[in-house]
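dude i think i finally got it to work??
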Amino acid sequence: MRRFIIERNIPQIGSAERDALRAAAQKSNSVLAELAPDIQLQQPKPGLHALTLQDRRRPPWPLGFAHAEMSGLPANKITEVSKTIDPTTARP
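look at this
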């Protein structure tokens, strides 16, 4: 499964009210369901982890930019993740 990091620069997002955040998340979910119902957004894992990113010269994930435009949430940078390094990586 391909994975991507979407970096969103949203001014003053830290001071947004919970209802505004909920409305933005609901809009994001409905747009994603319309564009690509088989794609799931994941929350970052809690705890220590590092991501190894693919070559940044590759074309970005175009669906991410379409989602950003339709949902009104910016997608300033989209980078494919090639590997995840976390405590579970040490397991045999």
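DSSP finds two helices and three strands in the chain.
im so relieved honestly
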